[in-house]
Amino acid sequence: MRVLVLNPGSATLKYRLIDLVGSTATPLASGLVEHTSGDSIARAAETVLDRCAELGIQAVGCRIVHGGNRFEGPARVTPEVIAAIRDLGRLAPLHNPIAASVLEGVLTRWPEVPLVAVFDTAFHRTIPEQAALYALPLDLCRKYGWQRYGFHGTSHRYVSTRLLARLGRPATGSRLISCHLGNGASICAIRDGQSVDTSMGLTPLAGLVMGTRSGDVDPGLIVQLLRELHLDADRLEQLLNQQSGLLGIGGHADMRDLQKAALAGDERAVLALSLFCYRIRHYIGAYAAVLHGVDALAFTGGIGENSAVVRQAVCQPLAWLGVRFDSQANQSGTPGEVCLSTADSAVQVWVIPTDEEGLIARETVELLGGDVGRYS
């Protein structure tokens, strides 16, 4: 089956056309189209559909950042589903409205081709209430859906599955930590193959320091920002989402630029890099307690897969946890799935390149079964 996978972001629409035959997934086309607003995303979607139409599409799967409490797994897209995704834009304003516009465009252009929404939050629906709830008045939390949802769920699901395969063990009894490190970053604690806690929360703003996002801050600081800087809600959101994180501390949002600056002695860059790695270790330590120990730790995402500097800074101080880090393997630059721990390490450490598009394609096919169309 040929599945077109769409990944709408705040500035780009990524796509990959995948031919699934049994357990084999063959990429036929991929790329991205830039956009600047909710209006131009519709034109970006048209461009992608034009590029892929002649290759023959039997189904379309689309990544959706926020599914809230409404969606526990992939959903066949209807106008009602699109309306629900758009409504959840109050929780993910940079992503869900754009994704809803993409879905509307595909549904209008190719009504005969099955369209499936795959949600980043679905993998985290197994997080228990004690980890998911915020200590606000419970009636307000229930009414407005204020809780920890988590994101990067498709990546964490894929990485944990591959990590179990590398360990050669079933999910039952396993204790894994998945670190998805990119411009957006999150960590997930996984027990028995299920998410039990994750660093992102109600929105993708919480948790780790990110490229331009602040990650965790004291709620009282939010009040101070409103009072001292006289910000409205939109300006505050812009500050926290687009002007903070590595950019705000170190002057560079891209880890590659930050590492170059740090190597050249830029004190701000050194501080930002240190803060980034510290926050990762902070969460690893917390999740080791949540899981009652750790069997394996995985790095994925653009930074996790490519930055030996970050992996070294995170893992070298974790000897107390039983990590015996193999610095030579870390520096080797070997592509693909690579073990970064020594044979006597109590906790295995791996680089596992993520494949969100491949998993979205498979979840799309699983949901549809034999119900597929074709546009060619």
Short description:
This protein is of the alpha/beta class and 376 residues long. The chain folds into 2 domains: 118 residues, ATPase, nucleotide binding domain (Nucleotidyltransferase, domain 5, 2-Layer Sandwich), CATH 3.30.420; 184 residues, ATPase, nucleotide binding domain (Nucleotidyltransferase, domain 5).
List the helices and strands and how they pair.
Blueprint: E1 2-8, E2 12-21, E3 24-34, H1 40-52, E4 59-64, E5 75-76, H2 79-87, H3 96-109, E6 115-119, H4 129-132, H5 138-144, H6 153-167, E7 175-181, E8 185-191, E9 194-198, H7 219-229, H8 233-242, H9 245-250, H10 255-263, H11 267-291, E10 296-300, H12 301-306, H13 308-315, H14 327-331, E11 338-339, E12 348-351, H15 356-368
Helix pairs in contact: 1-3, 2-3, 10-11, 11-13
Number of domains: 2
Q: What is the strand arrangement across the widest sheet?
A: 3-2-1-4-6-5
The CATH superfamily label of the largest domain reads ATPase, nucleotide binding domain
% residues in beta strands: 15-25%
Overall mean confidence score, pLDDT: 94
Structure, described:
The chain has 376 residues and is of the alpha/beta class. It folds into two domains: 2-119, Nucleotidyltransferase, domain 5 (2-Layer Sandwich); 168-351, ATPase, nucleotide binding domain (Nucleotidyltransferase, domain 5, 2-Layer Sandwich), CATH 3.30.420.40. It contains 15 helices and twelve strands. It has helices spanning 40-52, 79-87, 96-109, 129-132, 138-144, 153-167, 219-229, 233-242, 245-250, 255-263, 267-291, 301-306, 308-315, 327-331, 356-368; strands spanning 2-8, 12-21, 24-34, 59-64, 75-76, 115-119, 175-181, 185-191, 194-198, 296-300, 338-339, 348-351. Strands 3-2-1-4-6-5 form a six-stranded mixed β-sheet. A six-stranded mixed β-sheet has the order 9-8-7-10-12-11, with helices on both faces. The model has no long low-confidence stretch (mean pLDDT 94).
